[in-house]
């Protein structure tokens, strides 16, 4: 691999690491923030919803911005603003201030999410081999590192010290990575020329099809993250020390699968990696739900995490190579909507049919990815 490409890969990996570190730090300090402002769970939930709303507002626009100014510049801007915005919620003194702070964080997060993925595709092109799964693995490693650091600092130092320290780490990473990010090259000029056609401003059918696959994959992923612990507690009636097993198995297997995912893509190709991974995830969910036992369910959640680990990274990569930054923006926006809608939909269904039955919808989502991926990838090749 050329040294410039290697340097770019390290830079994008470091930013994905910082991205994961940010959300782990935010999540771990939610209880302290709630107590400091004497908020209810519902009020805090509205705050987190503002992050999602803000992200969904800027994600569709970021592809166009990246085409105009380059994903390397937009990544620098998005990372700097997002990383610095981690501090804002913790300076809030009221619910209205908190909602505004979360909304601002969400707006910048939407820019970083799309721009960083587009920069990952640029790094892939420079390296002339798949990198996206490994880049997403660094996000998982950042989350794990944030959890470990939080375990040492939460409750031991003031929240602002903890958040300020993490912000300083992230901004230091940005300073190191900024000169190593790569211009997008010819794809940007091609995209600029394409925008002269009014039809180019509308999402293409290819982007919508890939977005649909991403929606289903992230629907299943978000459901696993948000409902695994409750499934263990309420359905499996697991002991206190076992409640986190499903979440841990899912998260750990996902990080492991992403670390080795690019080698798998080289071996199987994009389509088979997505199809077999989604099928494995559906099998894992089936195992966890059909045999409601702590051991078998833990194996099932691990299989689900392993299967889903490369679905979204591969779809992002395919979108970037085939459709440039705007394609990533469309796919990311649709996929993120699945990540947001999945958990509450499972909650509504569980009230009607029970959590175990409702979670089968997540397995169905993975199964649909396995069934539909062949048609979508064939359409992209034609």
UniProtKB/TrEMBL annotation:
It comes from Deinococcus radiophilus. Residues 6-381 form the Major facilitator superfamily (MFS) profile domain. The keyword Transmembrane applies. The chain crosses the membrane at residues 12-32, 44-62, 137-153, 159-178, 199-220, 240-261, 273-291, 297-316, 328-346, 358-377. Pfam families: MFS_1. SUPFAM superfamilies: MFS general substrate transporter. Signal peptide: none annotated. Keywords: Membrane, Transmembrane, Transmembrane helix. This is MFS transporter. It is found in: Membrane. The keyword 4Fe-4S does not apply. InterPro entries: MFS, MFS_dom, MFS_trans_sf, MFS_Transporter. CDD domains: MFS_MosC_like. One of its GO terms (molecular function) is transmembrane transporter activity. It is a multi-pass membrane protein. GO terms for cellular component: membrane. PANTHER family: BYPASS OF STOP CODON PROTEIN 6, INNER MEMBRANE PROTEIN YBJJ. PROSITE patterns: MFS. Its main location: membrane. It comes from the Bacteria.
